[in-house]
Amino acid sequence: MIADTFLIVTLLAAATVRGAAPLVLAALGGLFAERSGVVDIGLEGKMLTAAFAAAATAAVTGSVWIGLVAGIAASVLFALLHGFACVTHQGNQVVSGMALNITVSGLTVVLGYAWFQEGGQTPLLAPGARFGPIELPGAAALASLPVIGPIYREVISGHNLLVYVAAAAVPIVAWLVYRTRFGLRLRAVGESPGAVDTAGVSVSATRYMALVGSGILCGLSGAYLSTAHHASFIRDMSAGKGYLALAALIFGQWRPLPTLGACLLFAFADAVQLRLQGTPLPFVGVVPVQLIQAIPYILTVALLAGVVGRAVAPRAIGVPYVKER
Amino acid sequence: MSPSSTRLRLDWVAPVLLPAINLTVALLLSAIVVLLIGESPGRALRTLASGAFGDAESIGYTLYYASNFVFTGLAVAVAFHCGLFNIGAEGQAYIGGLGVALFCLGAGSWPTVLVVPVAIVVAAVGGAAWAFVPAWLQAHRGSHVVITTIMFNFIASSLMTYLLVNVLIKPGQQSPETREFAPSTWLPQLHDVVRALGWEIGRSPLNLAFVFSLLAGALVWFYLWHTRWGYELRAFGLNATAAVYGGIPPAATVIAAMAISGALAGLMSLNEVMGVQHRLLLNMPGGAGFVGIAVALMGRNHPLGIVVAAILFGALYQGGSELSFDMPKLTRDMVVVIQGLIILVCGALEHALQAPIEALFRAARAE
């Protein structure tokens, strides 16, 4: 009984880590954009673009690396388009984000259908053309140890490269945002762009850089979906994960570490829901899977409502900066 | 020439010429996508147009789709006028549909003349109720309505899946949908009405809800521009600080705007649930809530513009299915691409195009 429970907990933890990786990457991308004062509803669209570009390129070239570069490039391209509309031309940031999400949800299927004739999917990737699991050193040697062995083997080791990239991205982004000159400007631009402008730093350039950062991270996130988690692009495969990442970013109050926590929480809820599938729980009976699926969204609304804590957005978020002439 | 008279004469640029130019730009961008696929954009456009307006049946389908988009477009526009972006029309329509379905399931023995007005109220109240929570949170807690309405779309979708799979499903059936309502609760379809008058036209799902959508447009126009509440709503949207200073109650205005917006979205379910399907299906709104954003932007948030834009989108949806039939390489998803590009060009890039065009006109006048 205890051994069973331990096994289930270990597997749940491993599933949580795998599920959190794309959320973490996209949410950190959103963190760059939103801390610079640009609303980034387009996380979903950028993920989907990157997923398609990465899988299509990897399928054609047979190289997962070229696929990754293509995924990031496509995602950055859309981030720059968002910047062109919202930073250069002071367009409505939410409208622009929705426009990208909707365009991409159609475009990826149209192109995929026309180019590969597989009903909107991309061809299945060969094992060499996708990110496979990586065995960390010592996983085999430690395997015989009780408790630590299985935890190390299942939860820490054995994931694909992009999971570790996601893990590394958290401290890197935290360092960039809080400990570098760029980070200081980024945060200042999101709070008080006028002051930054007065100091002689370009608001537009800083926001564009933030959007490129968002593009790169969403690119990694999308590539994870189609070339690591799955072995092809499937229509609408981001399936709301971009919005979930946005919710995690808000739930994490636009800070890297709490955002990681929110991503893990949301991914855990998803892992539990997949595992339960109608199995009755002690005391509460069968919990509807749909209720568990809705938990992240309900929690985010509760947070925004101030029921649990308080979410304070960057002050200049959503406001296009108009330089005085 | 004084600046004010220049502005006066340029008035027609914004409502007529700009949408036309925007649409052209969006279609040109779509043509590039069609070329990328290796098809002819000209042939695609011809197929689209004949598929949407070729005969009575296609026109019926076009207007049936348009009915949905008039409702959701009006929903987005009313919120826009108050300075709010309601992304939740999809969820609000879904919950409105839940109300209508529950009512129709229970009102099988009622006469149609009684069912229809009650159903209108139920649909509106359902949609408004789903918009109320985000509205209240925006008004009293400052929670941004964009984010909360997105979250409420997902919550509505989970709730409805649960209800349809576990509660409302017709017993002994696999697909998650309710049983069919009694025929007395169906909205009359145009081809039946016309047949009763002695003519035959092609069968299409076009029904009484299209008339309701036009009435809703007229009512929204009257409300926004000819009532005190509409004035308050627009004043708040233009400048919240000045409106509050002028004595307009901010919380009540925001909640009223969102409730009306949600009610309009909820009314969309009359067309789908009572007019066509006669049962509640999974994913009933089918993305119409998001089309509403494009329709409102393209129609420049004016009911007349919204009706025109909704018919255009209805044509895209109907013509799009014809397109995928005739040109198999172009799937219906092409319509979604065009929809996204229209939102991009009319919404996000509006300043990018407006400024140079107006400058051009001013330069031409100055000479």
How would you characterize the overall build of this protein?
The complex is a heterodimer of chains A (325) and B (367). By secondary structure, chain A is mainly α. Helices cover 70% and strands 0% of the residues of chain A. Chain A has one domain (2-242). The termini of chain A are far apart. By secondary structure, chain B is mostly helical. Chain B has a domain at 69-315: ABC transporter involved in vitamin B12 uptake, BtuC, CATH 1.10.3470. Chain B is built from 16 helices and no strands. The chains are: A mainly alpha (325), B mainly alpha (367). At the A-B interface, α3, α4, α11 and α13 of A face α2, α6, α7, α13 and α15 of B.
Defining key terms:
A: mainly alpha, 70% helix, B: 367 residues, mainly alpha, ABC transporter involved in vitamin B12 uptake, BtuC
What is this structure's SSE topology?
The complex is a heterodimer of chains A (325) and B (367).
Chain A: H1 2-35, H2 43-61, H3 64-88, H4 93-116, H5 139-142, H6 148-156, H7 161-179, H8 181-191, H9 193-198, H10 203-229, H11 241-251, H12 256-276, H13 289-304
Chain B: H1 3-9, H2 13-37, H3 41-53, H4 56-81, H5 89-106, H6 112-141, H7 145-167, H8 190-196, H9 209-226, H10 228-238, H11 240-245, H12 250-277, H13 288-298, H14 303-326, H15 333-348, H16 350-366
Helix pairs in contact in B: 2-15, 2-16, 3-4, 3-14, 4-9, 4-12, 4-13, 4-14, 5-6, 5-7, 5-12, 5-13, 6-7, 6-12, 9-10, 9-12, 9-14, 10-12, 13-14, 13-15, 14-15
Number of DSSP E strands of chain A: 0
Helix fraction of chain B by DSSP (H/I, runs of at least 4): over 70%
The residue-averaged pLDDT of chain B reads: 88
N- and C-termini, Cα separation of chain A = 73 Å
Question: Which overall shape of chain A is indicated by the principal axes computed on the Cα atoms?
Answer: globular
Rounded Rg of chain A? 20 Å
Q: Report the portion of residues of chain A in β strands.
A: under 5%
Beginning-to-end CA distance, first to last residue of chain B = 11 Å
Order of helices and strands of chain A: HHHHHHHHHHHHH
* Tally of DSSP helical segments of chain B: 16
Extract low-pLDDT stretches of chain B.
1-8
Residue ranges of chain A: pLDDT <50 for 5 or more in a row?
Answer: none
